[in-house]
Amino acid sequence: MDTATTNSVDRLQVLHNILSEATEEASSAMSIWTGGAITLSLDCVRELPLEQVTQEFDLGMELLTMVVLTIGGDVGGTFILTFDEENGRRLAASLMKQEVSTEIEWSELEESALKETGNILGCAYFNRIARLIGGEFVPSPPAFLQDYGVCVLQQALMEQVQEGSDVLICQTTFMQGREKLNWNILFVPHTHMRGLLRTSL
User: What is the DSSP string of 41-76?
Assistant: First the structure.
């Protein structure tokens, strides 16, 4: 293994350790929010060329339901919580203690339930990272979106692309008991945050 490859592996391991801690904190918050029903774990941290990202994370051109939080400024980033239609509806119904809706349009209460889920997870994630790098973040209010995942992800990655050839992205897996749920967190830190994360340990 050459020096460049070794440095890349070491750098990703540092980032993986930091983001694992953030994921653990988010998992605790999610467990409380859902009454212990759902937990999450960090799946992978990757540095990839933009053109490979959508292929590696298998977003395809499927319409997804998403909750997006952003942090502006140099030390910023984007937090994207994604669901397919079935899983998003199931979560909303569970939180509202109602039957799963079969209406085409999402109700305000359903959207509110998912936005609050994204807010709880995103704030737990950002708060842990802020403590690790000695900063303070004020995330945007959560936005409820129904769009193609590839489009939202590419928009979140543009800040990184402007400053480097590769982008950093991590993916998180959700579990309900032993069942893997088809929803994920995609966390995309801006370039300056990436640098602070790398030097924080």
Answer: EEEEEEEEEHHHHHHHTT-TT-EEEEEEEEE-SSS-
